[in-house]
Specification:
Elements (H helix, E strand, L loop, with lengths): L3 E7 L5 H11 L4 E5 L8 H14 L3 E5 L4 H5 L7 E5 L1 H7 L5 H14 L7 E7 L10 H20 L3 E5 L2 E4 H4 L14
Parallel strand pairs: 1-5, 1-6, 2-3, 2-4, 4-5
Antiparallel strand pairs: 6-7
Helix pairs in contact: 4-6
């Protein structure tokens, strides 16, 4: 790879997006923010969150709204830029309607696309899931499994990998021992 992949993960409201934005700004490269959230005009609280994120970033960012076709959008990256994808949890949520075969294809396409990127900095923000109780509903377990596996696979590719908790960032690539990609699991029927 002639580019760098960075993963920033952590629980909700930990500061992971702010840390990722700080890392991106420190590159000194043209900044592209890939927003995976879908705007919903019937949800004013969600719209307010999106606006607060936009205001915090400031005007030097180009923003792309990419709710599904993440791999295709990354292929449009220009050399010498820094792309920040926020967030993988929202992207996985947008893909929950996909059956397992379709999800596997979309996920594989995203991971494979990382090998073909031009010389860029690429930062992914992802929520950590599975630190609490097992979700009571099938869609919650599906979300947890899909996002957890994707984050693990990106963690095997990315360097550095940051865990942000309570407003503090720890470089797991420096202190942790890599386990490698997610093993293939047989899903219960």
């Amino acid at each position: 790879m002639t580019h760098r992949v960075v993963l920033v993960t952590g629980p909700a409201r930990s500061g992971k997006s702010e840390w990722a934005e700080t890392l991106a700004q420190k590159t000194g490269k043209p900044l592209v923010y890939v927003a995976t959230a879908r705007r919903d005009p019937t949800d004013p609280e969600w719209s307010d969150r999106i606006e607060r994120h936009r205001q915090r970033r400031g005007g030097e960012w180009t923003t792309l709204e990419v709710p599904i076709e993440l791999a295709a959008s990354l292929q449009q990256a220009t050399p010498g830029s820094c792309w920040l994808v926020d967030s993988l949890g929202t992207w996985v949520t947008n893909c929950l309607d996909l059956d397992e075969a379709s999800w596997s294809e979309v996920r594989t396409r995203l991971l494979a696309s990382l090998a073909d990127l031009p010389e860029i900095e690429l930062i992914f923000v992802a929520e950590e899931v599975g630190w609490g109780v097992i979700p009571a509903y099938p869609v919650g377990r599906l979300f947890r499994d899909r996002l957890g596996s994707l984050v693990r696979d990106l963690g095997a590719i990315a360097d550095p990998v940051y865990l942000v908790v309570a407003g503090r960032a720890v470089n797991l690539a420096r202190w942790g021992v890599p386990l490698g990609p997610t093993p293939t699991l047989d899903r219960p029927s």
